[in-house]
Amino acid sequence: MFIPPLPLPSNPNIELRFRAHTVEESLEFGDATAETEEEFTTRYLNTVQIGEVNDSAMWTVQDRRAALYWIWMNTRMKHGHSLSYTCGHCHQLHQHTFDMKDLGGELELLQVPPRIEVSIPVNGKPVEWILKPLDGRSMERLQAMYNRLPMKDSPAYRNELKNVRLVEIVLQTQLKDDPEDFEQAGEKRYSLIKTMEEYTEFAPLVASVRTMQESLRHGLPIVIQDGQPMLYAPPHVCPEKAKEGVRLTTRLYFPFRAIKYLPVSLAGLMANADS
Ligand SMILES: [Zn+2]
User: Fold this and answer.
1) What's the CATH number for 116-215?
2) How far is the CA of 108 from the centre of ligand 1 (A)?
3) What's the pLDDT tens digit per position in 132-149?
């Protein structure tokens, strides 16, 4: 199966070439779980590249989803997908069936470098920050942290969750004098950010990270919820309101997981072929 080359959405000068995975690889990836999906995504995207491997751990989370989507679209015969939801407009249950092919039209390539620079002080001293989208390494790290969160009803839960959210911000920053080592650099920025004044320094940093995410939109429209990347479905028009001549739409998102689109088992592969 020929898969057309895909320009890396965050850096379209890089062209990615993929091949379809083999049955042997399918068996090898068979033990992927939702808890390890980011790690598997890295391995999978590195395994199915043709030629020199461009390490997918360094790609943005959007690049990784776009690549998974691209491979999936070009190796599957049927592209239908269905979601059911309770409509916020008419409060009835709807079924939204769409062609995954339609999402391809929303694939955006970035025309500027995937980073922005801002100056935000720490304890009144100016600091130059580089803000960048989460990459594969960061996603693996976050997923591991979300997996280790205590039970929701435990007293420690809220604080631990706040800490993961803080790390999520830390992982979208970079400093010019960061140590080479990813872990060390992260620890250093984490310690520094914890010393920021909450309202006058940390809040503007968080706001700048949000602005960065918005201005560096690329790949497919996704949202990251509790460390899980979710893909937006095409807008669905409420059929009830349409009868009254009113056009109201809902934009749903759904987990776009590597493992969902990787054959979980050979039996799964066969079941998928029938669906
Ligand atoms: Zn409705």
Assistant:
1) 3.30.2220
2) 30
3) 999 999 999 999 999 999
